[in-house]
Each structure stands twice: as structure tokens, then as C-alpha cells.
Write a structure and sequence with these properties.
With about 100 residues, this protein is mainly alpha-helical. The chain has helices at about 50-90, 95-105, and strands at about 30, 35-40, 45. It is rod-shaped.
């Protein structure tokens, strides 16, 4: 005969911590080599190595996206500088002196 033990239904969360630890975002990680433990250096919570790796992976992806956006902005700025320098080179020396004197007043 088997016995069935009833358990309460509980929601499973990947990073559900109680109390003060729930307010910590666990961004400052500390690796404990003995035992292969990952801990939060701020709240001393023991974290899942998989969770830590996925969090670091997300941060890396965000940083790479930011770098790509900055590279794009630099390319646009370089193109604009070339465009303006070509316009400036196309202006004759006489026009430059006229433009310079009109901006001095």
C-alpha cells in the first residue's frame, strides 16, 4: 500500500529571496573556490552558478549593444566631419575671408 503525502502548491521563482536579500540585485559577485559557490558580496546570499552566469551574460549583451550604438554614432560623426571639411575645402579663399569677417561682427 502506498501513502500519498499532500504538499502545498508553491510558485517557483528563480531568484526569490526573503527579507533584505530580496532588495539586493546581486551585481557584486564573489566566487568561493572551495565548493564552487557563488555569493553576493553585498548581502552574502548564496546564488545559483547558473543564475550568476545568465545574469553576467545579460550584462555582457547589454554592454555589447551599447558599444555597437556608440560605434554607429562615431561613424555618423566621422561622415559628418568629412562632409563639412569637403564643403569647407570647396569654398574659395575669398569667400572664407568674407564669412570670417561677417562672423567677427
Amino acid at each position: 500500500m502506498r501513502k500519498v503525502i499532500p504538499f502545498e502548491r508553491r510558485a517557483v521563482a528563480t531568484n526569490a529571496l526573503a527579507g533584505a536579500e530580496a532588495k539586493c540585485v546581486h551585481r557584486n559577485l564573489r566566487l568561493v573556490e572551495r565548493g564552487g559557490i557563488v555569493m553576493c558580496a553585498d548581502c552574502d546570499a548564496t546564488l545559483s552558478p547558473f543564475w550568476a552566469l545568465s545574469m553576467l551574460s545579460e550584462q555582457y549583451a547589454l554592454a555589447m549593444g551599447h558599444i555597437d550604438r556608440l560605434k554607429s554614432r562615431i561613424q555618423l560623426a566621422d561622415a559628418r566631419i568629412l562632409e563639412l571639411s569637403q564643403e569647407l575645402d570647396a569654398i574659395s579663399p575669398g569667400e572664407r575671408s568674407l564669412n570670417k569677417s561677417s562672423t567677427d561682427t
